[in-house]
Amino acid sequence: MWPEAWTLAVRGGGAVTAFIKDYQTLIAGLIAIAAAYLTARPVWRQLDRMSVQTNTMFRAFLSDRIESLKGRRRWLAKHLDPYRSQVTQRLYEMRELEERLNVHWIFERAQITDSLVETLETYRSERRDAPAITAATDEIVESLTALAKDLHAIHRPASTDQSGEDYAYSDAEWAVIEQAAVTADKALDALVARFVAGVAALDEAFRAELDDLRDRMSQTDKALLGR
């Protein structure tokens, strides 16, 4: 009995040995994969934690950026919207109802426009916005600068004497000043329209930037919740 059992054992062992010999490369590969998996598990967990931390920090950055952008949008609107409403309404009244420009209002509006340009110049020097917002802000400053120059030209003949204690304009020089006022009057409506279009473009630039930031925050939230 024992010799027969021993023979079967030897034969079985030979089969195992043959199997190992035939598939030793596959077995070695499986062992290597298992070892690599066991070794990498702590690293994967660490990387996962780092990803969560990074996404959390990035979300906080996006949130701060959105709130800052909304604040700047409100600040600009506070300065630009009343000016736009006042200019467009008063210009309509003078053109359609009074049929003439009120030089006193033109003079006052020229001073207000100068002040607004200075305010926006300060804003531009202290803020760093997205390219589209910066370009729209630049266009508004340029349009207001041109508008202020036009307003000054319109009121100049009415607010300046041809001669004074320490100056005097020749008739030819005075004629140039008066003609400049006529030309400026004709250009006024187009300059106001340019400014109005610039304000609309600025608001659109802010909207697009906010939408982009909100989309990125939504993607970050999905990454955090998908763990």
Would you write up a description of this structure?
The chain has a domain at 70-225. 90% of the residues lie in helices and 0% in strands. It has helices at 2-22, 24-98, 103-126, 131-159, 171-225. The longest helix has 75 residues, at 24-98. The radius of gyration is 38 Å and the shape is rod-shaped.
Chain-wise SSE layout:
Blueprint: H1 2-22, H2 24-98, H3 103-126, H4 131-159, H5 171-225
Descriptive terms for the model:
227 residues, mainly alpha, 90% helix, 0% strand
Which blocks of ≥5 consecutive residues have pLDDT under 50? none
Count the beta strands.
Answer: 0
Order of helices and strands: HHHHH
Shape: rod-shaped
Number of helices: 5
Helix content: over 70%
Q: Radius of gyration over alpha carbons?
A: 38 Å
> On the 0-100 scale, what is the average pLDDT?
84
Question: Strand share of the residues?
Answer: under 5%
- The assigned structural class equals mainly alpha
- The rounded distance between the terminal residues' Cα atoms is 62 Å
Major sheet attributes: none
In brief, what are we looking at here?
With 227 residues, the protein is mainly α. It has helices at 2-22, 24-98, 103-126, 131-159, 171-225.
